[in-house]
Design brief:
Layout lengths: L1 H13 L2 H20 L12 E8 L2 E2 L2 E6 L2 E13 L3 E12 L2 E16 L2 E6 L4 E7 L4 E6 L2 E6 L1
Antiparallel strand pairs: 1-2, 1-4, 1-10, 3-4, 4-5, 5-6, 6-7, 7-8, 8-9, 9-10
Length: about 150
Amino acid sequence: MQEIIQSNISTILSTGYILAEMRRFFLIAIAGLFVGCDSGVTGISTVTGNWSLRTLNGASLPYTVSGSGANRTEIVDDVYTFFEGFTFSETIHKRVTTNGQQSTVTENETGSFSLFGESVTITGNSGVVRRGLIDGKSNAMTIVEEGLTFVYRQ
């Protein structure tokens, strides 16, 4: 009986059965790792490109962010451009009214962004950090900060 067992073990080892099984297990584990580490945003092919502000707190633009009447500041438009290499630029146009006199102010920001699943973190070179979610089905990016909800679309 012992000779049969040793013979079977020798046969298994000599044919590489254990190595083949280890290889198979390794390949299955690697495949599972790739499936589990999906790049994240479902339903959207890329986040690169322009993301234009469409609504702020559910209202269309221009949106008054401070003041009223003859003294107010309104956001006219806001566009993020996400580039390959995880960098961005942002251009915001604001209309500032002081004692009834209007002027247009342009603010620019650059920096980097990162993705984790559907979450996006946008870090400006000025130190401002904004966090939001990208919905790939509707091509919408939503950022909530300081009581304001910004919805951007590609």
